[in-house]
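Good morning N.,

You mentioned wanting to compare the apo and holo forms, so I went ahead and generated the holo version with manganese (II) ion. This is what I fed in:
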Amino acid sequence: MPYIMPGMHRLPPLPYSYDALEPIIGEETLRIHHDKHHKSYVDGLNRAEMYLVEARKTNDLDYIKYWENELAFNGSGHILHSIYWTIMSPVGSGGQPRQRTVYHANQYFGSMDAMKEQFIEATEKVEGSGWGILTWQPTWGRMEILQCEKHQNLTQWSGIPILVCDVWEHAYYLDYQNKRSEYVNSWWQLINWNEVERRLAGAMNGQVPLIIEG
Ligand code: MN
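and this is what came out, ligand included:
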């Protein structure tokens, strides 16, 4: 897989002309959406990454919350729009649902129709701005439909968690009360680096033997 240097994201070209999705999506919509909106996510993501390169050099992480939000907002915007362009095609050229899609939709949702119904309903009912998303959930080996409000809420969609630290109060309050910093710093000594390596390798192979239930 390619390694993208910080600050080096580029706006992918549309895989069809601006008027190719007419009459369902108009030329002007597509032009503004791709050239302005998507572009600003790419620029914002590059800016945030470059700021953080500097911040790590100078050990100045005072504005970390702001820049993490920028990473999430712009990173997710860039990723989701890149997917959105490619999962559409001119009317009549998209074909029928293929074998694997149908198999997994049947297995989990019961049928393609049930998947469609839930997807449309969930997408319609996203509160405010956001996305309807059909995901592959590698942890459980199945598809899922999720609503994504806005899209930043501090994730970059398509990322696979490698190392996680629970900072809900239930994770540390009895031991550290309100001293979350003490907890996180001490917690670092508990990390099982073999498991971190295994998860990273799995994620990179697309196999993701994530967790074992039961
Ligand atoms: Mn958009």
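The beta strands are 130-137, 142-149.

Happy to go through it together on a call whenever suits you.

Best,
F.
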